[in-house]
Amino acid sequence: MQGSDMRALRIFYPYKHLLNPSLPKSLSIPRHVHSVIPLAAEQSSTLSDPEPEPEPTGTAPRVWSTYSNDRNGGQKKPTGVLVDIARSKKKGKEKVSWVCADCGHSDGQWWGLCRQCNAVGTLKRFSDGESEASVSEAASRSWLSQQTGDVRPLRLTDVNRGINQLKWRIPLYGPFGEEVSRVLGGGLVPGSLVLVGGDPGVGKSTLLLQIAALIAEGHDLGRPAPVVYVSGEESVEQIGNRADRMTIGGDELFLYSGTNVEDILNKIQPLSPRVLIVDSIQTVYLNGVAGSAGGISQVKECTSALLCFAKKTNIPVLLIGHVTKSGEIAGPRVLEHIVDVVLYMEGERYSSHRLLRSVKNRFGSTDELGVLEMSQSGLQAVLNPSEMFLSEQYSDSDFLAGLAVAVIMDGSRTFLIEIQALCASGSIDSRQVNGIQASRADMIISVLKKQAGLKLQEHAIFLNVVSGVKLTETAGDLAIAAAICSSFLEFPIPNSTAFIGEVGLGGELRMVPRMEKRVNTVAKLGYKICIVPQSAVESLGSQGFEGMEVIGCRNLKEVINSVFRTH
């Protein structure tokens, strides 16, 4: 090779023995350049690697690289051993993804905010190898190997053929079971994946342990059925101690403490349980998935593995999920998209009552609400939920000044709650509200000033909802106005009176949904008077309400004249 044919020189390694033997011996190399490798000449279409020479022992391996011209006139492409090494390293590189904790959107690059929901600070980094895509399915493959068959699309008319819808769900018996079944939509659906979330100490583990005991009794089957309760947070002895305190027994209720999903599925295989309970999803993990238990990728893959197990075996799986400081279930938002049902258990810190509500339900309504009470023997159903929202009744005494009863609905349940108001003279437009929307309270107070003629300008007004309930629907407007009038006029409201209605800006009373069901509930609880809008009286007709008088009013002035008139 002549010097004029050489296009460029490239430095690779500082070893003299790596010099290309095809270089002319007369070529002088500077002292600081120890190794050069020629590149292909412009006239040549390709330049093959020279025959390798025997390498001296104790020296570095020989590495060559060439450039070849594209025969179609394209750009020159690198070839040779160096390029092969670089390509092999690139194949083994892990894939890094950034997942939004709110909406579950995945992106290959960090942008500072989620490009799907525009949330800031929600992107979480995790990496997954090529083998993780099927890890969740492989976790249950050994269990399902004998059940996999020829699966074909089915007609819609053939799917439910021969299935009794009344006996399809797994029922939960007793007052406690009926309360939970109402929230689930009528019972536990076979093959469903249910996620239960709530604050620490609210009673999630107690709830699922009681559900496990009910199903293990097998009332609908006529014989006990196996149920497995798996905990990654407690030992078997600790769970057994809690069961003894709650007087829970049964020969078919099995306890297991473990955190490996594959191990859990292998251990329960001989039992063929009717229900599997995992406490909690943040403590279990899968082999082959990057990250520790509770990480984004682990939570997602473990949930997918349990979903695959539930759908293919028709065994329902109940999961417990931790919550963050904001009250949302910890982990990626996609977790709530994977499962079939999401239940939240709520409760005040200093109250024994618990509210179980559904925020997602593929098999029923999300408007249902279960009311439970925590006791020494576990969770008990509250037969009359209005008792927890009403204070002691002091019949027609001064204590009732500023108190009014509102009738609200949560889902299909009707509740009677107590509104408290206090008007203190000497302060100018000072207001404090608890459990009521501040903007709604300001509107009602302004309507009382303008339309009802109350001189509230020089009074401090305090509003409160008993038992820490948050009033969100407009059906409580009339009770709020009545409580303010009672405190301002220092006139007690009779304890047998309830209020239903929405207040408009003109002082008029408006209808609210499900008026007939609200009035029936008030009548069954023994109330004597119910104040409603005049339009509601016309829609209710002449039907009787067990001796209760229904009084219709068109505006706030008529309400004041009807309730606060002197006898």
UniProtKB/TrEMBL annotation:
Residue segments, region Disordered: 41-78
Gene3D superfamilies reported for this sequence: 3.30.230.10, P-loop containing nucleotide triphosphate hydrolases (3.40.50.300)
One Pfam family this sequence matches: ChlI
Alphabetized UniProt keyword annotations: ATP-binding, DNA damage, DNA repair, DNA-binding, Hydrolase, Metal-binding, Nucleotide-binding, Stress response
RecA family profile domain ranges (all copies): 169-323
BP term (GO), one: DNA repair
Record's keyword annotation contains Calcium: no
Parts of the chain that traverse the membrane: none
InterPro entries in UniProt: AAA+_ATPase, DNA_repair_RadA, P-loop_NTPase, RecA_ATP-bd, Ribosomal_Su5_D2-typ_SF, Ribsml_uS5_D2-typ_fold_subgr
Gene Ontology MF terms: ATP binding; ATP-dependent DNA damage sensor activity; damaged DNA binding; hydrolase activity; metal ion binding
NCBIfam families documented for this protein: sms (TIGR00416)
PANTHER family: DNA REPAIR PROTEIN RADA (PTHR32472), DNA REPAIR PROTEIN RADA-LIKE PROTEIN (PTHR32472:SF10)
Name of the protein in its database record: RecA family profile 1 domain-containing protein
Organism: Juglans regia
